Fold this sequence. Notes:
This protein has 475 residues and is mainly α. Among the domains are: 19-116, Serine Threonine Protein Phosphatase 5, Tetratricopeptide repeat, CATH 1.25.40; 405-475, Serine Threonine Protein Phosphatase 5, Tetratricopeptide repeat (Alpha Horseshoe). The protein is 69% helix and 1% strand. The protein is built from 25 helices and two strands. The chain has helices at 22-36, 40-53, 58-67, 78-96, 100-112, 119-136, 141-154, 168-183, 188-200, 208-216, 224-237, 240-258, 264-287, 290-298, 302-311, 315-322, 328-336, 340-349, 356-370, 374-388, 395-398, 403-413, 417-430, 435-447, 453-462, and strands at residues 159-160, 165-166. A two-stranded antiparallel sheet has the order 1-2. The longest helix is centred in the middle third of the chain and has 24 residues, at 264-287. The protein is elongated.
Amino acid sequence: xxAAGAAPQAARAHRAIATSDPxxxxxxxxxxxxxxxxxxxxxxxxxxxxxxxxxxxALAYVGEALAETMDINSPSTPDGERRGADAIARGRAAAxxxxxxxxxxxxxxxxxxxxxxxPAARFRALFAALQGYADTHPTDGMGATLAAYAGYNATGAxxxxxxxxxxxxxxxxxxxxxxxxxxxxxxAGAHHLRIHFWEQAHRPERxxxxxxxxxxxxxDPGESHLQHMxxxxxxxxxxxxxxxxxxxxxCANDDAYFAQGAGAGQAYMRTYHEHDVDFVLYGLTTLGxxxxxxxxxxxxxxxxxxxxxxxxxxxxxxxxxxxAAVTPMRVIAxxxxxxxxxxxxxxxxxxxxxxxxxxxxIAGAVVARAAHDDDAAIAAYRxxxxxxxxxxxxxxxxxxxxxGEGLGATLLEAGxxxxxxxxxxxxxxRYPNDPHLEFGLAEALASQGKDDGVPRRAYLAGWDGARPLxxxxxx
Length: 475
């Protein structure tokens, strides 16, 4: 972290490779940083630049191959499998003449792109090979970080049992990341994955130092995802102003990057830009800064404007934006606007590809709630909640209706206050400091004649809205 008053440190990545060409080394380091920033298009271009500068730089081919599997949100695509296998094929001659550590890393990467194997077997083989390398080269921080990413992609749930204990593979991944940061505290890739890891392991607070580290860096255009990642922790621990700030920064970074052109890096990062925007809008509307959310969304996509409209229950505005398109968002807006018959008709005409079955269940819950069919609404919300499980993937910006919030409000409307209290308490363990949930809990307690002072004061302290919340605003 920079000292007070000092300029922010730039995001960086470095691993010395066997080359005498400074251009090859520089291009490799840029590719590594882009890998860690999930800018896979730019990473691929940088590693190819390193290959052009020094065709004998074996790790440049390793980087290019691993670019196709590094993004944990998209670790395998048909084109990526072909590109990765091609990079391995082109790099074999360089690897044969490389130092032993680079030969070992090349052989590990080749395991991932042995296309004769089943996909799951390739992921497991890469993890085993990179873990073997990391264990026998304990001073290579990049090796430990790459092993951790491979392990994350090869492993499903990280925890098991009632205590959410880390499974053995997860313990190995955590140890890899900790080792990488002992070797190089500025390893942005390790900080990045630690956030995903502890979020998935239901202990986001353990990655707060990683979030603060990434939030404090300076980023060149194209590196926005690293800045955004701090928001994953701030979201989960209820630091909404901080979450908004880092994602505003990520959005500005995206805008500057897109203004530079339309290369492979820009094309890839456009897949993440909406995610940055969603975090800003989610944070602003959670705190009641609704006019600010509308202004921000006005500079973004129609989808962003639709999402804010739904969050603020601007049903007419959502319907105008959607035009004739029949989507779950339209069904929700129609139901909330009181056109229950049309909403039911449109919902019946949708199929599960429109947001999946969970999306249809959420839309169905809203329709039933608007029709005052409390039992049907509660059942639909519970079905969606069960399908999503404990890790709802930040539903207040990913889904069109926050499931737990809507369920709690419907239970209150149905006079089932004790059940509503349990739902709001459970939601607040996953989304602390959310004024909507604190208001709902206060209302549930008050309706039972219980002391609502603590959640009521918390709601009032965190709420920046122009008017007080109402039960109808929830969901």
